[in-house]
Recover the amino acids of this structure.
């Protein structure tokens, strides 16, 4: 048996993700996290009736980021993630988890070369993508606006 | 003495006179929980880092096996150790406390096989009398080196395996003792690469190497497929075990009567472990507890150990390299 035939055999027989089950779990957990976010938005809008929408949005983001980091520190977020998959990775709490978890993990190598240097190993690409795509969108917007 | 192409038998007897094993909490709840010499209550064992815990586990296993044998430390000629961490920091750092010459071996999760093979050459060549083989792995230490931080909320792939927290040490000696297994021969494995690139499916990456080594061993030794009571592969996992069956069958060998896998066995059925356990401590701990005790009790007489290793680093995978496999075979009889 050569490598090619073997790879074909493996791709046919390897255990697959139970998609229906994992999609449902991701949908439910992701949905609950978003409902929680909406709940905070409504709460802040109720408590601060004079506040602008952007301030309420920022407060909600801050709260969700705090909760994501807190549950990471408590050792709960990874357990949610093992069930929910993308359901808990995609929301902003997942972003907080991706920064807090390497910070905790690499704290052992010291504050500067461990925690600070490794904090963004996972979130870094997300930030780079965000910055680069916003520059591209900005340039396109400028071109269209001039035209 | 060379037998066939890649198989070597020691000149004179080499005996596995004692073993010692230590396992983490999940492994302790697994199938062989009662066989280990010690089971940790948590992953830390009062250490600040998991690397330090792994060093402590290696040290414990080496200390225990020397103590059980009744030999003095000065009578041990060499420690042959291995682990999965970069620069073998667990096994070599553990050995610094013993003032015994040390050799480091690396065949990823097949390191215990390499350690046994190297030891049989050292002992069978007439150069040494007593050698300790020790390999181990720690889930937390391996995870941060090869994968992600522990607290990151990722979902394990169904084809993946769980790196075991365990270490096993075996003391090999040229002095004959009654009622202990004799190391008959070793087949040193080739690197086999069938171009599997999925780091979440190590069983598939390693199965061709295991098949190659087992079949080479049987051809070299002139033994049939029913010679061994048990053939234990290292950590192919449940899927890898099935793949190995398939590969052997394709070449006309039906090993379904004797073939099993330590990774597929180490956890209990009710433990959620995907395809099973893996790691340099997997076969080491299962051999140094369950298999060794069963052999000494006489319920297993002819055993072929085939630890399997997937040779990859985080960088090699990112650079698009495939995952070559390796497996060494060690024949033991009582």
């Amino acid at each position: 048996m050569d490598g090619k035939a073997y790879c074909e055999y493996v791709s046919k027989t390897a255990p697959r993700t139970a998609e229906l089950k994992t999609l449902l779990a991701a949908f439910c957990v992701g949905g609950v996290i978003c409902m929680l976010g909406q709940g905070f938005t409504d709460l802040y809008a109720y408590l601060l009736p004079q506040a602008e929408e952007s301030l309420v949005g920022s407060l909600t983001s801050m709260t969700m980021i705090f909760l994501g980091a807190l549950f990471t520190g408590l050792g709960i977020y990874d357990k949610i993630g093992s069930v929910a998959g993308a359901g808990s990775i995609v929301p902003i709490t997942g972003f907080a988890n991706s920064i807090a978890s390497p910070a905790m993990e690499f704290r052992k190598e010291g504050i500067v070369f461990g925690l600070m240097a490794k904090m963004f190993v996972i979130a870094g690409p997300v930030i780079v993508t965000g910055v680069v795509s916003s520059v591209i969108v900005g340039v396109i917007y400028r071109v269209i606006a001039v035209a | 003495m060379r037998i066939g192409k890649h198989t070597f038998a020691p000149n004179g007897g080499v005996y596995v006179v004692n073993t010692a094993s230590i396992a983490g909490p999940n492994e302790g709840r697994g199938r062989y929980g009662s066989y280990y010499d010690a089971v940790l209550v948590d992953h830390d064992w009062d250490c600040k880092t998991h690397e330090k815990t792994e060093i402590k586990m290696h040290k414990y296993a080496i200390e225990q096996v020397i103590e059980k044998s009744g030999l003095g430390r000065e009578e041990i000629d060499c420690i042959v150790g291995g682990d999965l961490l970069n620069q073998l920091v667990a096994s070599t750092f553990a050995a610094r406390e013993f003032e015994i010459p040390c050799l480091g071996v690396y065949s990823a999760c097949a390191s215990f096989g390499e350690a046994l093979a190297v030891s049989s050459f050292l002992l069978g060549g007439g150069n040494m009398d007593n050698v300790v083989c020790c390999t181990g792995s720690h889930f937390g230490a391996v995870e941060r080196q090869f994968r992600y931080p522990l607290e990151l909320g990722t979902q394990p792939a169904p084809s993946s395996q769980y790196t075991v927290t365990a270490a096993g040490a075996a003391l090999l000696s040229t002095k004959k003792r009654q009622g202990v297994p004799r190391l008959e021969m070793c087949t040193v494995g080739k690197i086999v690469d069938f171009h599997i690139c999925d780091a979440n499916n190590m069983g598939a990456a390693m199965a061709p190497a295991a098949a190659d080594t087992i079949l080479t061993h049987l051809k070299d030794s002139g033994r049939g497929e029913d010679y061994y009571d048990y053939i234990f592969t290292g950590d192919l996992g449940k899927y890898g075990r099935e793949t190995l069956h398939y590969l052997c069958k394709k070449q006309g060998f039906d090993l379904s009567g004797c073939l099993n896998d330590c990774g597929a066995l180490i956890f209990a059925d009710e433990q959620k472990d995907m395809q099973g356990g893996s790691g340099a401590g997997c076969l080491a701990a299962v051999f140094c507890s369950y298999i060794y005790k069963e052999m000494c009790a006489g319920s297993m007489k002819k055993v072929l150990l085939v630890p399997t290793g997937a040779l990859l680093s985080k960088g090699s995978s990112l650079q698009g390299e495939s995952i070559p496999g390796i497996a060494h075979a060690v024949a033991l009889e009582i």
